[in-house]
Amino acid sequence: MMISFLVICYNHEKYIERAITSIFSQKLSCDFEVLIHDDGSEDSTIKILESLGEKYKDKIRVFVTPREKEKKIYPIDRISAAFSVLLRQMKGKYFCLLDGDDYYISQAFAIHAINIMEKDESISSVVFDFEFRLKNRVDSITSLAGFGFNEGIIDSKRFLYSVYVHSGAFVFKNYFNDRQREKLISTSFIIDNVIVPFILQFGRLYYIKELVYSYTYSQGLWSSMPLEEQNVFSAILVDVVAHVAPVYKWELLYRFFPYIKYLQRYKKKINVNNVNWYINKLHCSSIGFYLRNILNWNNIHFFKKAVTTLMYFYMKVILLKFCISKVCTKIKKIKLKYFDIYSFWC
Fold it and tell me: 152 in the Ramachandran plot: left (φ > 0), alpha (ψ -120 to 50) or beta?
C-alpha cells in the first residue's frame, strides 16, 4: 500500500523546502512517494528541488515544464498540465495535494485518514481543518465544526455548497483507472477545485476535527485576477464541475451563483482580456450554453438573448426550491430533536 503526495510549485524558493520537509515528517506505516511538478520557475526553486532529490533519492520524482519567453502563458492551462502529469504518474492507493508554498501542520493526519478508509471501503475522502496564513501570521482557521459538521461521515453535497476547504486538507482514495483519469484530464481544465468534487462522487466523505494544513495566502491564480475575471472564472468552474461530476451540479451552482448573478447584471459591459479563451473552455451543456451567451452578449441575436434570460430565471427558481428544501430539512431535524427530548422525559 502506498500514498502519493502531489506537489505543484512555481517560484517557491522561500517555501518549497518547508513544504517537502512537512511531507517527510509524516509518521507513516505505509510506503509513500513525492511527485513534484515545477512550472518553469525562474528563481532557485529548481535547484532546491534537485538538492532535495539527491537527499531523498528513492522517494522524490521531479517534473519540470520549461517556459517559452515569447509564448503567452495562461496560468490555468499550466496548472492543468501540471496536474495531468502528476495524476498520470502517481502509483499510490491514496493521494494528497500540496501547493509549494504551503505545508502540513500535523504529522499523523495521513495515516489517520488511511486507517479510516481501510476500515470502510465506502469512504472516498477524509477532510480536516486548515488555516489561512498571511504575512507570516495565522489570519484565520476554517473548521467544519463551525459550519455545523460533526466528526464522522458528513453529507458531501451539503459540504460542497456550504464551505470551502483547501484541497491540501484532504486525503483522497485513488479512483483513477485509465478511463476515469482520461475523463478528468480531457476536460476544459483541471485545478484542485475540480479534483475535489470529482473524487467525492465515488464514495462518502469523512470529517476529522484536526488542524492539519497551513495555506499561505499569496499572489496566486485567484488573487492575481481582476474582479471581472474572478467572476468569469468562478462561473465557468460550475460548468467544468458539472461536466466531470454532474451529481454536484446544483450544489456548485448554489455556491457560485453570486458570480453568475454578477455576469448577468453586467453582461453588456464585461471586459475581460482573454474572454474568448474562457468561452472556448465551456462544454456543450445547459450551463455552458448560458455562460457562452452571457460572455458574448453583444454579439448574439434577440432570440438567443431571450432564451438566455429565461434560463437565468429558471436557475433562480431551481435554486429557490433548493433553499426551501434545505430549510425544510433543518426544520424536520429540529422537530425530531425535540420529539426525542419529549419522548425521553415522558
Answer: left
pLDDT of residue 342: 36
- Structure-derived torsion over alpha carbons of residues 103, 108, 111, 115, reported in degrees to the nearest 10: -130
CA distances from 199 to 54, 184, 195 (A): 33, 10, 6
Residue 315 covered by a domain: yes
pTM of the model: 0.89
Distance CA 207, CA 14 (A): 32
Extract the runs of DSSP E, i.e. beta strands, from the chain. Answer: 2-9, 31-38, 60-64, 94-99, 103-104, 123-134, 137-142, 152-154, 170-173, 204-216
Identify the CATH number of the domain in which residue 60 sits.
3.90.550.10
Distance, CA of 144 to CA of 329 (rounded, Å): 19
Q: What angle do CA 255, 114, 123 make, to 5 degrees?
A: 50
Backbone angles phi, psi at 332, to 5 degrees: -60, -45
Cα 169 to Cα 122: distance, rounded to the nearest angstrom: 20
pLDDT of residue 300 exceeding 60, the answer is yes
Query: Does residue 328 belong to any structural domain of this protein?
Result: no
Domain co-membership, 113 together with 240: no
What is the rounded end-to-end Cα distance, in angstroms, of the chain? 53
Helix 178-185 and helix 75-89: axis angle, to 10°?
Answer: 170
Count other C-beta atoms under 10 Å from residue 147's C-beta. Answer: 13
Q: 20 is written with which cell numbers?
A: 517537502
User: Are 131 and 205 within one domain?
Assistant: yes
Residue 176 lies in a domain: yes
- On whether both 159 and 16 belong to a single domain, the answer is yes
State which of 197, 216, 235 marks the end of a domain: 216
pLDDT band for position 327 (cuts 50, 70, 90): low
> What are the tens digits of pLDDT across the range 128-182?
999 998 877 888 899 999 999 999 999 999 999 999 999 999 999 999 888 888 8
- 152 and 189 in a common domain: yes
